[in-house]
Amino acid sequence: MKEFINSIRIFLIYRTYKFMVIFERIANKGFALDIFSKKFQKDPYQTYSKMRSINPIYHSKPTFLRWVTKMHLVQQILRDERFSVDDRKYPIAKLRRKELKRDGRDIMLDQFENPSILKLDPPDHSRIRKLVSYGFSNRYIKSLENHIIETIDQCLDHTHNLDSFDLMEVLAKPLPAIVIAKMMGLPDKDLNQFQMWSENLLQEVGGIGSSVKKRKLARDAYEDLIRYFEKIILSRKDNPGEDFIGELIKAEEEGDKLNVKEMYGTCLLLLIAGHETTTRLIGNGLYSLLNHPDQYEMIKKDYLLIPNAIEEMLRFEPPVHATVRFAYADMEYEGNSYKKGTPFAISIAGANRDPEANENPNEFNILRNKINHVSFGYGPHMCIGASLARIESRLVFEKIFERFPKLRLGDELPKWQKNFIFRGFENLIIKTR
């Protein structure tokens, strides 16, 4: 009965959304942001460009968000203390708490009240980030290179004598999960389960048209991950070990340390973010490159072009398309008044294609001299794992180009996943001969 009621609720929300899109289209002389449309899912960049031309802070009533699509505004907001990530402080929190209580999601409610650094403002964000960042020092990340290379080889060995294979299944999904699990000291036998939990969890994080069943899968995965990390961390309190989780348990700086619930949220964030972002960077990046054969040929002749190519891949098809900020208090910004708690969708993808930030922004060019992007964020919340993602993707491309000199797309029009926060492929077939 509960599932039936939830299905009716989701249907009514969807129908209301569609009516609001129609009214927005009428008001804007034919234009509306429709995140459910096939056109948007296939190519959201045209929509971002149109929004930017109408208003760089575009009010989308169907999504209840102000979409920010200009680079200088995106950068400004991401470093401005007047904009908050902590949704516990604003009206949206009441709805979230009520929903989680109604669904009996006690673990999720508990973590909502004890969020990871992704949802914390300073000073708590600064305190936890200091404790976490040691595990992502350049020295430590570079020390992982041999392990990453070995893992790539092991993954690609499964393609021996194959004319084609699914890049996502063979390499882009397993590699980041294996690497982050090694960093955290987690057992290899749990890797497949991590991937399943991670993929299920994202059904609700920006997922478009998620069914009741998929939403349940997402929430079950979230709670299973928290239980998993609770078991791991509590079992290692007396003998932490030398890996990432062990160091988190031992870590102290200026008298501060992570409490147990902060550890759960931090571990979940690192596992999911470290896995999913790099997975999409590898898939989106290779897809973009193979769609431009002339540039692919250039890179095969000179692997020194790969680091700059990765920056262009990040700019052109970023793994994460948007993040959210809230007005910390009633405020004036860019000539408009906003009430406390007003939500803003910070369009990473829109900013990356802003012509004032990058010349000819809709052209993919691995030789671009100055690449401006915010694909790893900006300001205090810039991605801690950016250097790891760059190293993993560089080593992946070097190995793939070395092994498969005749690489090409097996599907010219692979399907993008239905998600307006994360952008990537479920499957990406590539041919080797």
Characterise this structure.
This protein has one domain: Cytochrome p450 (Orthogonal Bundle). It has helices at 2-27, 38-42, 45-54, 71-79, 92-102, 106-113, 124-133, 138-143, 145-156, 167-172, 174-184, 191-201, 212-235, 244-250, 260-290, 293-301, 306-316, 348-352, 386-403; strands at 57-60, 65-68, 83-84, 164-166, 322-327, 331-333, 336-338, 343-347, 408-409, 429-431. The protein is of the alpha+beta class and 433 residues long. The relative contact order is 0.15. Strand 1 and strand 2 (65-68) form a beta hairpin.
Per the CATH scheme, the topology name is Cytochrome p450
Oligomer: single chain
Structural class call reads alpha+beta
% residues in beta strands: 5-15%
Strand element count? 10
Shape: globular
Uncertain stretches = none
Helix content: 40-55%
Number of helical segments with 4 or more residues: 19
CA radius of gyration is 22 Å
Strand order of the largest sheet: 1-2-8-5-3
- Give the C-level CATH assignment: Mainly Alpha
Number of separate structural domains: 1
The ordered H/E elements are HHHEEHEHHHHHEHHHHHHHHEEEEHHEE
The major β-sheet equals: 5 strands, mixed
